[in-house]
Amino acid sequence: MIAVFLLVVFGVLFGIHFYLWKRLVKDTTRPGRARLIGTLALVAMVLLVVGGLVFGRLMRPDAARWVAWPGYLWLATMFYLLVVLLVLEVPRLVLNLAWVRRRRETEVAPEPALVPAAAESVDPPADPPSALPSPARAPDPSRRLLLARTMAVAAGVTSVVTVGYGVSQAMGPPRIDRVRVPLAKLPRQLDGLRIALVSDIHLGPLLGRSHTRRVVDTINGVGADLVAVVGDLVDGTVAELGEAAEPLADLRARFGSFFVTGNHEYFSGYAEWIAEVDSLGLKVLENQRVEIEGLDLAGVNDVTGEDYEHAPDFGKALGGRDPARPVVLLAHQPVQATEAAKHGVDLQLSGHTHGGQIQPFGALVRLEQPVVSGLGEVDGTKVYVTNGAGFWGPPVRVGAPPQISVVELRSS
């Protein structure tokens, strides 16, 4: 199964690079040194991406970043080159059709040669001149080359500028998103309860201890009553990233800090990370709930845990509780709200989507998740999804800035 998945991934990757070679190298150069250099450059980019994806996971984070940075930056640039060039296929087609039509309209039939009258009486009739194409019908390679180069430059500039902007967003400080959510059952004494919600911190080759420190300082700065970390904290083992996660011990909130697993914890040694996070002072909710002054706060494992004998169990987390109390559920993926709604959850807090991270890629995320960013509703259960404070893959965010959310619960 994994082999088939990798075959599809690399097949798509090679297909995209072949298309880019066609539009950026073959169409813009004549046979010779320039085309050879362009071809070799794209081959190098393919190897760079493959190396980053395959070997990046096998290397220590401090060493992997030297492969990850260029590989992921090219991956983002490749994506935008593909998007822009596909959009430009429309004007390319229109211009080519216009040139063909113009050539046809300007066709001029060859005029018969004038022959002296005297010669007509002596020589036999000459064969009609063959219908040779006029210069107007001959293809114009220079025009096609100019068009290809113009569109290649436009795609290149647009992609580089977009990726540069995206890097500045991804590597910048998380923004604070504040949202008020009314809960009909919320006790009066908890009216105005503020939950600092963060997800997808993604410590790894490109984000380390300084990133964690910035996230912790930002959360402490909002003065929340409760902190919820809803998964995808790491992309690596405790041995590799334990030191980078240590600033989490400095989180401060009146009712404490809580954690649930995300899918990436299962790729990084989830059992060790659960113990590590617990040692840093965060309460790990493994299909559990706690009562906070008349409010039930529950947490379930991520759906990926099904493959690791650590599946989400909504019945265990939510069964046997007092239905008169409101319940807030921490679950990494928004799609888990479908099951949460069956158990009467009032509000689910999630991450996972990154808000789409790189638009227009967010359109594909909407095919899998019911809510991509912000506040929504699934079968009567309110769902709030934060964009996440880090990134996965390319260090690029376009249209979905990094985010720490402050969810304020209101009784009316």
From TrEMBL:
Keyword Metal-binding in record: yes
According to the UniProt record, one GO cellular component term is: membrane
Does the record carry Hydrolase as a key word?
A: yes
- Residue stretches making up the Calcineurin-like phosphoesterase domain: 193-355
Q: Where is the composition biased (Pro residues)?
A: 125-138
**GO molecular function of the protein, one example?**
metal ion binding
Per the record, the domain of life is Bacteria
What family is reported? Belongs to the metallophosphoesterase superfamily.
InterPro entries attached here? Calcineurin-like_PHP, Metallo-depent_PP-like, Metallophosphoesterase_sf
Which range is the signal sequence, renumbered to this chain? none
Transmembrane residues, as ranges?
6-24, 36-59, 71-95, 146-167
BP GO annotations: lipid A biosynthetic process
> Which is an annotated Pfam family here?
Metallophos
Swiss-Prot/TrEMBL cofactor(s) = a divalent metal cation
Provide this UniProt record's keywords sorted from A to Z: Hydrolase, Membrane, Metal-binding, Transmembrane, Transmembrane helix
Name of the molecule in the record: Membrane protein
Chain residue ranges for the region called Disordered: 117-140
